[in-house]
Design a protein that fits this description.
alpha/beta, 5-stranded parallel sheet, two-stranded antiparallel ribbon, 9 helices, binds adenosine monophosphate
Length: 210
């Protein structure tokens, strides 16, 4: 199972990718998480990425592609993977095609109100566990259920940066919907509703297809 999750910021890609990875026992490869981990460790790659991320811009294609190429070469990716947040541009999609075959691209469709609400309510712990103040609050306010770390709002979930990320999505990532449709890889799924509802729709659609 070699999957790509596509959709605007706040569509639920990270949440659903984690569920898919557990169900199909494949690695969840999230380029945003990889950049945040590098930034937290202060590596040269992390410092380079952070400048772009904090303003809501995309990291340059060649940087992302090199990182994904390395990750897909690791042994655990041989049985399959779910890519979350990659590709985000047509050149990235073309590079991915050179690296590996893809079985399906799940496009999570959500309306603008839901995107805004999900992003405004998102809180994350430093280890990457993600909550939503309204739809998926932690048991103890402000504290991660899993590891007890304090929850914070991602720098790029603040309203002015969210607007820039949405512009980047419209301009650079949305063309991938057509791109993968033309390649007959696109599986469109309605991304509103509960995590379980959306997950059920995705797995039904994938199993009907593969
Ligand atoms: P995400 O966690 O997927 O929302 O990604 C957070 C940020 O990481 C994005 O706003 C970009 O700055 C950067 N990023 C993640 N994936 C990519 C990608 N495939 N191409 C370019 N930038 C990316």
């Amino acid at each position: 199972m070699r999957l790509v999750l596509l959709g605007p910021p706040g569509a639920g890609k990270g949440t659903q990718a984690a569920r898919l990875a557990a169900k199909y026992r494949i690695p969840h490869i999230a380029t945003g998480d990889m950049f945040r981990a590098h930034a937290a460790r202060g590596t040269p790659l992390g410092r380079q990425a952070k400048g772009h991320m904090d303003s809501g811009a995309l990291v340059p294609d060649e940087v992302v592609i090199a990182m994904v190429r390395e990750r897909l070469a690791e042994p655990d990716a041989r049985r399959g993977f779910v890519l979350d947040g990659f590709p985000r541009t047509v050149p990235q999609a073309e590079a991915l095609e050179e690296l590996t075959e893809i079985d399906a691209v799940v496009n999570l469709q959500v309306g603008p109100e839901v995107i805004i609400e999900r992003q405004a309510g998102r809180r994350s712990c430093p280890r990457g566990h993600v909550y939503n103040l309204r739809t998926h609050p932690p048991r103890r306010p402000g504290v991660c259920d899993v590891d007890g770390e304090p929850l914070v709002q991602r720098e790029d979930d603040k309203p002015e940066v969210v607007r820039q990320r949405l512009r980047e999505y419209e301009e650079k990532t949305k063309p991938l919907v057509d791109y993968y449709h033309r390649k007959s890889l696109l599986v469109t799924v309605h991304g509103e509703g509960s995590v379980d509802e959306v997950f059920y729709r995705i797995t039904e659609a994938l199993e009907a297809r593969l």
